[in-house]
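Problem statement: downstream parser choked on a complex file, so we are re-checking the raw output for the 3-methyl-2-oxobutanoic acid run. The parser issue turned out to be on our end (a line-ending mismatch), but while we're here, posting the original submission so the record is complete.
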Amino acid sequence: MSATQDVRAMTPPKIAARKGGTPLVCLTAYTTPVARLVDPHCDIVLVGDSVGMVLHGLPSTLAVTLDMMILHGRAVRRGLECALMIVDMPFGSYEESPEQAFRNAARLVAETDCAAIKLEGGEGMAGTIRFLAGRGIPVMAHVGLTPQAVNTLGGYKVQGRGDTGEGILRDAIAVAEAGAFAVVLEKVPEQLARKITADIAIPTIGIGASSACDGQILVVDDMLGMFADFRPKFVKRYAELGQDAATAIAAYADEVRERRFPGNEHVFGDAPKAVADEDTA
Ligand code: KIV
């Protein structure tokens, strides 16, 4: 056991034991500074494959690779002390067979020091979840809207309305029975989220799935308002960092063009006046 594991406050069993208790607080992170910001407030920090869209400008998560997840996982790990770090398995790294999933999940665990992985899929992935969980790799499942299936689903629409809700309930039951310690429910109606949460023994983590879930997760950049034109119904913006950053960058550009930056306070003299000057150089 490594020194960092000794001090970790959160573990998959502790997350599982929170079923029905105080709601679990979860956010994504992809970098060390953001991991440091979210760690004191979160139970789970997910290195989501949403990194492809959020940080790399990709149109979907489908081109995200295992190497990208490892790079960002290592960065996030350096910023966490308390929260449970979970890393997403990217598209194509686990669907082929339980053996392929184990090989790649083991790389994520060994190379990022994450305590668990997340993968998308319900009944069809139950065998793989059982295989991983039975071999020392805790799994958080993900059902409802599964973004890696965007082409099959025909977009990022709400899932499980009307009769199709039965299938998602079966998915949630299957992943819970297979040994997942928690499950993300994405973009499903409130009534369905409430029924699933009542019917399964593991915590449900909602995104666009109402407060009926055992916890909530959002993409951190979405709730911080980084993207002016991305305003999905299920995201509440707690800040407008994108707008604030645009205003700051425009002010910097104006000041440089008008020679107002750098000011005297930012300029070095020929001979330092005191040691303090040097310290801040
Ligand atoms: O990739 C991701 O960030 C996710 C969460 C939004 C659940 O899967």
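For whoever reads this later: The two ends are 41 Å apart (CA to CA).
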